[in-house]
């Protein structure tokens, strides 16, 4: 059985506590009664989605390379590698997190100035739970606490708009979830969070062109660090208590206060997560839905298409339409393909779907896809930008070679 969480003293809810202590107290205080039946059902949905994503990625070439490294380092342990084998909890956190992320179908949480993928916590929490032989209930509670922590931070801080990557808040949440499973006290949880986060300041340039393999593996390394940090905290290692509000802490780095209410015990943020239908960044989901609907309703063939215009909300343009993260004219590899609205629209029109097969290098580099993506333009639209993140909107216009025009004016 997993170690029991140590009791929380009343003073640990005091405003005099540091932010990392209050987050540690929040994680430790999660109880089964906070998971109502509807919340449990949603977590089961998201957990099954994460497992499905991981299974779909097992044969990925990058994952095989990672498995080869794990084998070379020969870390013994009792934690399962999805797809077969056992290793140490930190290596399992790395590998399984990378699997969940690889096909880009994982869940998302949207906020002004950024986003996060709560299921990035899954591989880490699974490894920690297996390591301590936790029950399913204990696993779900730790995962729910991690979801809540990561999303609350994301809602409060425009991490990506300020030039940083959402792996920062993942370090906080995954360390808290893993530490809870390891039976850490609130004091030890605070140290685990501080240790894991202070050296995990991640930059949003990981999303810039040419997008590299590291975009998808960064969360796995974060998970690996958080497991190790939680283990060290249990052995008495301390981290900077002023991680948030102290000199040169996160508040100074982000140039704002971070007023999250960590005393609220709710574990219902999963209601605000979004599930994906297509293998694409979350910003591409409404675009692909509109493009495919327009093609099917009008019985269009790709041979007829002369030009496609996509009007999208500003973050979609910046990340994946040729905005501030770089041009999207010549994708070559998977990591560029799933972050490229021009390619995604082109391959959706050609193949009538966007799944794992559409992210293979040979498909991305194929002449038909490259030719069609050159006839796709992406533009920011104030209408959709004003509604983001409450709504993810897009409008598509397809012009044919014989001058017919088809529009999906607003979605």
Could you characterize the architecture of this molecule?
By secondary structure, the protein is an alpha+beta fold. The protein folds into two domains: 10-272, 2-methylcitrate dehydratase PrpD; 282-408, 60s Ribosomal Protein L30, Chain: A. It is 48% helix and 8% strand. The chain contains 17 helices and eight strands. It has helices spanning 19-29, 37-57, 61-73, 89-102, 122-131, 136-156, 167-181, 186-198, 214-234, 250-254, 285-297, 314-320, 334-337, 341-351, 361-365, 367-373, 382-387, and strands at 79-80, 86-87, 109-111, 114-116, 305-312, 376-380, 394-400, 405-408. The strands form three sheets. A four-stranded mixed sheet has the order 6-5-7-8. A two-stranded antiparallel ribbon has the order 1-2. It has a two-stranded antiparallel sheet with strand order 3-4. A hairpin with a 2-residue loop joins β3 and β4. α2 (37-57) packs across α4 (89-102). The chain is globular.
Descriptive terms for the model:
411 residues; 60s Ribosomal Protein L30, Chain: A; alpha+beta; 4-stranded mixed β-sheet; disordered N terminus; 48% helix; two-stranded antiparallel ribbon; 2-methylcitrate dehydratase PrpD; 17 helices; 2 domains
